[in-house]
Fold Short-subunit dehydrogenase.
Amino acid sequence: MENSKKYALITGATSGIGYELAKLFARDGYNLVIVARNQRELDSKAEEFKENGIEVISIAKDLFERDEAFSLYDEVKDLGITIDVLVNDAGQGVYGEFKDTDIDRELAIIDLNISSLVILTKSFLNDMIARNSGKILNLASIASKAPGPWQSVYHGTKAFVLSFTEAIREELKDYDITITALMPGVTDTDFFNKADMLDSKAVQDKDAMADPAHVAKDGYDALMAGKDKVISGFKNKVQVGMSNLMPDSTVAHTMYEQQKPKEE
């Protein structure tokens, strides 16, 4: 198989969009390095992915801790394998007005969504530059394009991810390396449960949520095509387009109303 000697490393690979992305890479013959916090879940998913006839290495890391991101890179290097594709999928949010939310939890989310992503990107990108080959997919969000009352820190981290990704892409224009941002909207994953967001008006209609498999396919296709970014879903494209035409204060108020708790 064309990709039989290639490796894709995917963080957040045991659930949601990360899991669906891992399935796509496995089906295309990529060997996998899958990363998440729970070793038992990793081992279970590894057995599933191996049914595609590929090698799967599972590494348990808590990427809320910066040192764990550095040690992940070191561990992969010690294995003597080359990462051809890096997928920075792991991320979390926290729901509530900023005056009420827990600062330690928010700082941990910043470390997960930003610091560990930057560490892994820097580490593996330098290897890609040395051989002039590689691909990186960063999970941004349509949240990156709008201020997000009730999720202020999460929206801020995703704005960073999008800006960071687009900046590095320009720096890499003379290399055979591409970096792509995937921008989903509300997707049917465990994200909202982990963020304590189940009471938000934004997540009451399960039928309106995107299928994580469809989001992953959009991101995978954009990555393989070398695109700079992709907004997954027509409705989300329209929402971002409309937001671009409105003052930020209006967008912030709209998001406040969309994301506030449902009325009892």
In short: Residues 18 and 83 are 17 Å apart (CA to CA).
